[in-house]
Inverse folding.
């Protein structure tokens, strides 16, 4: 079975602060993909990043960065200099090779960025 | 290009009625997924279609739920004899092929069962 845990249900920061959203996953597969999605108040899930299990390089995209560590089964997401528009629910998800084609989602972290 | 579209955006129905939810995937995407998002259960997988293969129905919660995909494109999720616990947002996603490809989501259909 596969599982994704996002321990932080809600985080509140003030604009321009850096914030890290944690994601811990469980799978017996050695081949898997990890994803992050953003769900703004409008409701639509927006794809942010996909990372495969064989690539542990960290990734940076503008103010967003991701830290993938297989040793701790974590795939954390950091927003630098947060902005009000970053306010949303963020989901981490896992797709493992032998576990079917579906995404298994974490419970989500609600990020509130206050001006 | 156009993203995944779903209709209706909102549906209110009475307990015991049947409902149909529609999904139009991104053109050229062979894989199509249905998920359900509810307050108590988070985001749950329901069913997966890939090309002409038999669908993976392992996530359907009961036999009141069914789905079909016609012509490898549009999909319809049908819920028969709706119950109040069926109230949720039903999300459709598509991907270019199957496993490991990025899934792109539609805006969802919010179903309310009175």
């Amino acid at each position: 079975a596969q599982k994704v845990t996002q321990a932080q249900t809600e985080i509140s920061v003030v604009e321009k602060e850096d914030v890290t959203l944690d994601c811990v996953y469980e799978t017996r597969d050695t081949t898997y993909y990890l994803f992050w999605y953003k769900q703004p108040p409008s409701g639509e899930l927006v794809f942010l990043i996909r990372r495969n299990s064989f690539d542990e390089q960290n990734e940076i995209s503008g103010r967003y960065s991701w830290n993938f560590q297989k040793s701790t089964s974590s795939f954390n997401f950091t927003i630098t200099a947060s902005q009000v528009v970053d306010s949303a629910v963020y989901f981490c998800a896992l797709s493992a090779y032998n576990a079917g084609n579906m995404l298994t989602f974490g419970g989500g972290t609600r990020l509130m960025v206050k001006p | 290009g156009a993203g995944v579209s779903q209709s209706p955006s909102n549906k209110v129905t009475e307990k015991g009625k049947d409902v149909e939810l529609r999904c139009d995937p991104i053109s050229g995407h062979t894989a199509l997924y249905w998920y359900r998002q509810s307050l108590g259960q988070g985001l749950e997988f329901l069913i997966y279609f890939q090309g002409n293969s038999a669908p993976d129905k392992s996530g359907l919660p009961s036999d009141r739920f069914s789905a079909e995909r016609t012509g490898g494109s549009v999909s319809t999720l049908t819920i028969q004899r709706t119950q109040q616990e069926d109230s949720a947002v039903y999300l459709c996603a598509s991907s270019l092929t199957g496993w490991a490809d990025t899934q792109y989501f539609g805006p969802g259909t919010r179903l309310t069962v009175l």
